[in-house]
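This follows on from our talk about sequence and fold. Go ahead and set the record down below:
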Amino acid sequence: MELIFTVEFWLIVGLCLSILEVFSGLFVALSFGVASFGMALLLKVWPTLLTEWYEVVFIHSTISLSVASLAWSKFRKTQASNQDIND
């Protein structure tokens, strides 16, 4: 359980999820991968912030949800602004 409090763990998870995103094309893996890199940065800058496993899970899921919602809203804005040639 101590593994989730290390920077190296989150870097490896982020790299694996980013590679999975390249081969699968699912957006979910990318948002979790970016969140993993964010967790690695957070643990590197402020290592004493997270002391329990549920705090780590909550922060990781919050970052992932934020990344996914921001990217989805950006995607929807670009789709709305591009006019279709058939319209």
Summary: Residues 1-8+22-68 form one domain.
